[in-house]
Amino acid sequence: xxxxxxxxxxxxxxxxxxxxxxxxxxxxxxxxxxxxxxxxxxxxxxxxxxxxxxxxxxxxxxxxxxxxxxxxxxxxxxxxxxxxxxxxxxxxxxxxxxxxxxxxxxxxxxxxxxxxxxxxxx
Length: 122
Fold this sequence. Notes:
The protein is α+β, with helices and mostly antiparallel strands. It contains two helices and three strands, in the order ααβββ.
């Protein structure tokens, strides 16, 4: 067989592909907890808004209900005071905007802005 008919990755190519895959894997492992917490926040505010009586629920009661759910779901990125609670069209709308900083390596970080709401106004 001649050298022209051979194909495949060289050692340098294998190392480059391996390093790229390892980088993507590490990024994924660092982002999974952040995204899981975001979905937990969305579930919690949706549950609090749907379980509350729009006529009788007060803002402190709603914040307290979220605080209890946040403790169970291990939500640490936001506090109950970060929630924006309003009543629109006879229903409770809870929204929150926050940023989360994820340290990647050395002095490089990734900042992600999240926004979650229970209403369709956004």
